[in-house]
């Protein structure tokens, strides 16, 4: 416990500018076990909602990322990266969430940007489980929980209690969104910036290929409809005004995506996640566009089956 509070004391001293939350300002996120407490029964299956890649504002508003791999061999492996305001690494964490003695324990080692460790060579911080709830794990002085228990992919709250001379409880609270399009696009195993960039670029290609397929089907339907109308009315040429407007809207959409997601890139340009965030923006908008095409042009008002199946989010 002395090592725990020494590290948390360093956090409180070195990260004071992050604006730790006092009890009067917000509900207390962390819990402390009583002396000699016994951890409750728990398994890794109860925290499988952690798996994925999470991103949000960290210390001083600089970007922070947390990643968790699915459980393997009785352990979930996680990493945390805190960036500086100019996009460099401030520090990282290597985390093991393990099953021990019928319960769970979270073990963490911290590293500086040059990979030198905070703890001694064989030392680590161990946070024993205090309580387990649906979509929430409360370790001693550290909390991991869903932002919305009814929607596990909607967000992640991570909180650590810090040593302080103030009478109020002081916590450092991180609020993350799942990396990707509204929590839908994930890249298991992609833990480097390059790997995530490549993965998300591949997802964007998939999303655009499906959008192209659905738009081509919509154009074909409207073109054939116009030709049939012209035949029935004995017109010299079909009226393709709807088709022309659809094609104009597609060009306008491309311009909108570039500007909207370009603004996202600018917002995150100081951090290494800028490319992934911009691509995720594009995936999200393309998915919405594809669904709009399907709803407007590939379905019927009666019980006739749609021309193509309803598109699901890109994963």
Quaternary structure state of the chains depicted: single chain
Mean pLDDT: 85
What does the radius of gyration come to? Answer: 25 Å
Question: Alpha-carbon distance between the termini?
Answer: 42 Å
Gross morphology: elongated
SS strand fraction? 25-35%
Please report the number of helical segments: 4
Q: Describe the main β-sheet briefly.
A: 10 strands, antiparallel, barrel
- Trace the largest sheet across and list its strands: 2-3-4-5-6-7-8-9-10-11
Q: Please write the string of helix (H) and strand (E) elements.
A: HEEEEEEEEEEEHHH
Kindly state the percentage of residues in helix.
Answer: 25-40%
- Going by helix content, strand content and strand pairing, the class is alpha+beta
List the uncertain runs: 1-25
Tags for this model:
315 residues; alpha+beta; ten-stranded antiparallel barrel; 11 strands; disordered N terminus
Overview of this protein structure:
- The chain is α+β, with helices and mostly antiparallel strands and 315 residues long.
- Helix content is 33%, strand content 25%.
- It has helices at residues 2-14, 193-232, 241-267, 274-297; strands spanning 21-22, 52-57, 63-68, 75-83, 89-100, 103-112, 125-133, 136-139, 142-146, 156-162, 170-178.
- Strands 2-3-4-5-6-7-8-9-10-11 form a ten-stranded antiparallel beta barrel.
- A hairpin with a 5-residue loop joins strand 2 and strand 3 (63-68).
- The longest helix is centred in the last third of the chain and has 40 residues, at 193-232.
- The two termini are 42 Å apart.
């Amino acid at each position: 416990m002395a090592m725990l509070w020494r590290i948390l004391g360093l956090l409180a001293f070195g990260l004071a500018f992050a604006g730790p939350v006092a009890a009067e300002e917000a509900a207390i996120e962390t819990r402390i076990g009583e002396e000699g407490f016994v951890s409750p029964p728990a398994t890794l299956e109860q925290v499988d909602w952690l798996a994925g890649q999470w991103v949000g504002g960290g210390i001083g508003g600089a970007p922070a990322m947390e990643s968790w791999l699915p459980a393997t061999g009785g352990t979930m492996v996680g990493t945390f990266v805190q960036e500086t305001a100019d996009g460099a690494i401030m520090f990282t964490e290597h985390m093991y969430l393990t099953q021990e003695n019928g319960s769970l324990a979270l073990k963490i080692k911290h590293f500086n940007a040059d990979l030198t460790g905070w703890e001694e060579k064989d030392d680590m911080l161990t946070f024993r489980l205090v309580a387990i709830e649906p979509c929430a794990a409360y370790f001693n002085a550290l909390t991991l929980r869903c932002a919305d228990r009814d929607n596990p992919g909607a967000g992640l709250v991570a909180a650590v209690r810090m040593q302080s001379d103030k009478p109020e409880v002081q916590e450092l609270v991180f609020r993350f969104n799942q990396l990707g399009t509204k929590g839908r696009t994930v890249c298991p195993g992609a833990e480097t910036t390059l790997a995530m960039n490549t993965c998300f670029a591949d997802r964007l290609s998939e999303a655009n290929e499906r959008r192209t397929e659905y738009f081509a089907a919509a154009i074909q339907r409207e073109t054939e409809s116009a030709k049939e109308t012209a035949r029935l009315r004995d017109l010299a040429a079909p009226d393709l005004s709807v088709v022309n407007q659809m094609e104009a809207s597609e060009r306008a959409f491309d311009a909108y995506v570039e500007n909207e997601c370009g603004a996202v890139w600018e917002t995150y340009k100081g951090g290494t996640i800028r490319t992934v965030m911009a691509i995720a923006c594009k995936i999200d908008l393309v998915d919405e566009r594809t669904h709009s095409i399907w709803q407007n042009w590939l379905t019927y008002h009666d019980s006739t089956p749609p021309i193509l199946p309803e598109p699901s989010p890109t994963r």
